[in-house]
Amino acid sequence: MSRESQRWAGLTVFGFSLLAVSYLLMFWVCRYRSGVPFSPGIDLLVRQLPLLDWTGLLSQGYILFLSGFFLYWIRNDWRRLAYILTATAVMMLVRDVFLLLTPVGPLPGLIPLYTSKLVPGVRGYLEFDGELFFSGHTGAPFLYFLLSRRHRALSLICLAVSFANGLGVLLTRNHYAIDVLGAFVIVPTVVTLSRHFFGWMDPEAAAA
After folding, report:
1. Total tally of structural domains belonging to the chain
2. How far does Cα 54 stand from its chain's mean position?
3. CB atoms near residue 40 (< 10 Å)
4. Least crowded by CB within 10 Å, which of 44, 102, 131, 141?
5. pLDDT per position as a tens digit, 39-57
6. Residue 201 is part of which domain span?
7. How many CA atoms lie within 13 A of 78 on its CB side?
8. Has this prediction a pTM greater than 0.85?
């Protein structure tokens, strides 16, 4: 392995490590929240929507999307993985703070995600019912849309998944409307923070 490849491999490990830290913090925050009797809030928009089971799309379908997204970069330019993973970790760390400060509990009628045997080990470890503000199902694909603007087909797929997931988490009562709308507002700031502190890790920015 060349010195340049070793450098990018090391940065990718850094991105994975930072993402792991963000998930460990989320695990702690959600476990803490599960022990506090937060009352559910009132969502005037969600009350007008039917209760529908979109858990297949939001569970297995979402995992397929994430797998395809990262496989795309492994095949096309694996060096970008370091920056994408780091930007994802920044989003998760920001989200951890908001999760800790969210003053309400889950909506009544919530249909749990990741209950299928096809996706074991996710529920209760990487996903919790108490994850509210802001929606990760909406925010992560929107983040990937913003990071993939030079790759038109991929970016449009990410945007479509973000919108579909946003609707899905409302129909399944996994999120309040503010959680979905908040993702579209906060994630661009996450991108700005990631570019400011870690933009040097992005090979596309260096080539621009």
Report:
1. 1
2. 18
3. 14
4. 44
5. 999 999 999 999 999 999 9
6. 3-207
7. 12
8. yes
Structure tokens at 25: 């913090």
Nearest to 105 by CA among 40, 33, 56: 40
User: What is the amino acid identity at position 28?
Assistant: W
The 3-class secondary structure across the chain, one letter per residue, is CCHHHHHHHHHHHHHHHHHHHHHHHHHHHHHHHHCCCCCECCCCCHHHCCCCCCHHHHHHHHHHHHHHHHHHHHHHCCCHHHHHHHHHHHHHHHHHHHHHHCCCECCCCCCCCCCCCCCCCCECCCECCCCCCCCHHHHHHHHHHHHCCCCHHHHHHHHHHHHHHHHHHHHCCCCCHHHHHHHHHHHHHHHHHHHHHHHHHCHHHHHC
Chain segment 133-184, per-residue pLDDT in tens? 999 999 999 999 999 999 999 999 999 999 999 999 999 999 999 999 999 9
> Which among 148, 188, 133, 183 has a CA at the least distance from the CA of 162?
183
Cβ–Cβ < 8 Å for 133, 182:
yes
Spatial separation of the C-alpha atoms in residues 153 and 155, rounded to whole Å: 6
